[in-house]
Amino acid sequence: MPQYIKANLLPFCPRPQMGKIFAEGFYDHGLKFFCNDTEKLGAAMEHIFLLEHFYAAVEGEEILAMIGVKDKKPPPVKLNKKILIRELGFFRGRLAFWGMNKFLVNNPYPFEMGKNTGSIEFVATSSTHRGKGIAEGLLSHIMEIEPFDEYVLEVVDNNAPAIRLYEKLGFKEFKRTPSPSKNAGFDFFIYMRKEEKA
Description:
Blueprint: E1 3-6, H1 15-25, H2 38-45, E2 54-59, E3 62-70, H3 81-88, H4 90-105, E4 117-125, H5 134-145, E5 150-156, H6 160-168, E6 172-178, E7 188-195
């Protein structure tokens, strides 16, 4: 049974594992545009996480899954252009900094968030632990202990496993918007909501 814990409270540095999980989990949802090597992507991304806004499912010192949760946009990440350039090269690093800032950091939800609404971000499971219900357990844990009245999240339309998971946990689609680019690899952003309190 995994342990669920805030990433900033882990007794080891979680960044390398989080970077790898993030790179593998979001590779087909835009990251491959910046680099086709998931090892390089992982090294480039490990700095971006604001750990106090992430939860991890862990066994020993292995991170099995991670989820960010925050009360508003922007998401719980911060990009460093110098690190991205160092890891991905001058052109790709600058492109990644520009693209991720535009589509992740400075891209607000196309709706008003409620006063006590939690935003679920960057749900990702290690490639060796997918299909075992780990993200489901972690997300259920977060919704049990965080004090929000409702939760919202964004998912791309071709991520069927994630959509099924969210529906299983009671999330319902309430809005969708077109993909920002023909090269993004998906057609729509889907926005889902779950009310926690009666």
